[in-house]
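Two proteins follow. First one:
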Amino acid sequence: MYAASREASSRAREALSAALTGSDSVAATTGSELFAVVAVLDDQRSLRVALADKSVSSSARAELAERVFGGKISAATTAVLTTAVAQDWSRTRDLVDTLVLLGQEALLRAAADRGRIDAVEDELFRLGRIVEDNPTLEQALADRGKTAADKRGLLQRLLTGKVEDITLQLAEQAVGRAHGDVGVVFDGLSDLAASLRKQIVAHVRAATALTPQQREHLAASLQRIYDKPVTVHVQVDPALLAGVVVRIGDDVIDGSAVGRLQRLRQSLG
């Protein structure tokens, strides 16, 4: 985002924090309603352009949002939406993307209030691995020829009753708008959940499954390195032969047998 949109996004997030005071149902409703607003804006180009039009006064944009959505969304969601559209955005897309992010954060806040954010985070990570390991499913969820409703329906058939309701809602919204690697989208949601818990995420590929003790030792070691609590997500990859590969953001720590062999070949070459 350019500077104007970064400032606008920051103010919209402040409005979300102010609105989410109360029970987890407030956060859950706000998240769901923000996703509904985004669905309308995705379908109506003229409306989303008008709500981000800097040539129109901020009060007029807020009034337009109230006319269109008033009575259809809660007071908390209205406060977030009107604050967002009253800001000056560098691009229309930045407004919509921020509303998506606010919806995600609201739902994750609801999960946290219910004491279920750990479960949601883990389910999103595992969902990313399932998609990554199943090319047919990945293609179906990323297929531009399929409607968002078709993709949501597929996820509902696969996941209903097997994951947290908030996990399913986040996943449905994500695949409805995804136009690329769906597994990466789910990883991003998992990382967002961790960040809201003030944690960083270590994506670990291991030659064999790690024991609980090994996971705890790895998390403690990484916490000493990064000076922050670390959530460890593990994917078993027998192709590594032995050891692990750890990715945190752009940092990669390769302690696998394959990595050591590659470094040996390079040193001999």
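Second one, unrelated to the first:
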Amino acid sequence: MPMKLVATITDRPVSGVAYYLLCTLMSPLILIGYIVFVGKAIATGRSGVSRTAQGPLTTRFSAHNFGTRQDWAADRLVWALPGVPRRGLRLAAGPMLLAHRLTGYVPRAFRYPFEGDISPQYEVSARIWFFDAAVDRYLPHVAQFVILGAGFDTRAYRLPSGTPVRVFEVDSLQTQIVKREMLKNAGIDSSEVTFVPADFEKDDWLSCLTAAGFDPAKRTLFLWEGVTMYLDREAIEDTLRKIASTAHGSVVVFDYFTTEPLESRALYWRCGRASTKAAGEPLKFGIDSTPPSRERLAELLRSCGLSLSDQRTLGQDTRTRRAWGGFATATAQKSS
């Protein structure tokens, strides 16, 4: 599933100035679109679907329309989201896309691959590249592809036709009901994907997966994106141990927070905790931020039977400035 740029990104300062000037001039339209968008979401109410699952989909939708990461499935799926007003979305996104077409400038959040240091505001954008790169690297060498906490992930629908890998998506029943209806309405074929409903904190998801046709003896790529921070430690360790119990050489790719976002008194993290709590998905878990946080992560993985093979620390990792998260890849060490 290799990705390539499909648009020329102009980095000249004058292009950036022109882009943001045009966006400023059209800001009344963007504001109206945003108000319509949020108003419809509030009026529609909660559908039982994870709100945090919609953010990554919107980011992939934006990158597709800026021409930096092709994802036709994300482009279609956004329009089918529950409570998304088409007019509001067009008003909110249209001016920015027009400014891009006139100037050639792409905002940093939607560049692919992501460039430079990763701040908390750009975590979702940067992790898309990290996860895509992992899929490109490991998918040719596995027999199964499992997306844990899949939400509205669209990677399963972008695989080349005839890919000899069986694909599973694991998530809550309500999220899967809504997603499957969205896929149908968007005209996206999901017949090659096996949907497995399970709650990581309540169910034995591996037993559910096995009952659906998953073979623990076959090497597998597990994707676990944007999930760990919303689970308790017991569920995290249980999930890692279950992955470690599968075939030797199976790989899990995941992102994580440290304890910094859960404890920091900085305004950004206080607002972040309040917003996720209001959405019914409070932050629960973080890797010990005592530096070096990479070692704290490696210790957790070893205790669960996994070996850390690739990792990217997010934020400074010193005595005075603690890392706030990271991206990681770990491998199952179980003997064949």
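SUMMARY FIELD: The chain has two domains: 13-110, 120-332. Residues 2-8 have pLDDT under 50 and may be disordered.
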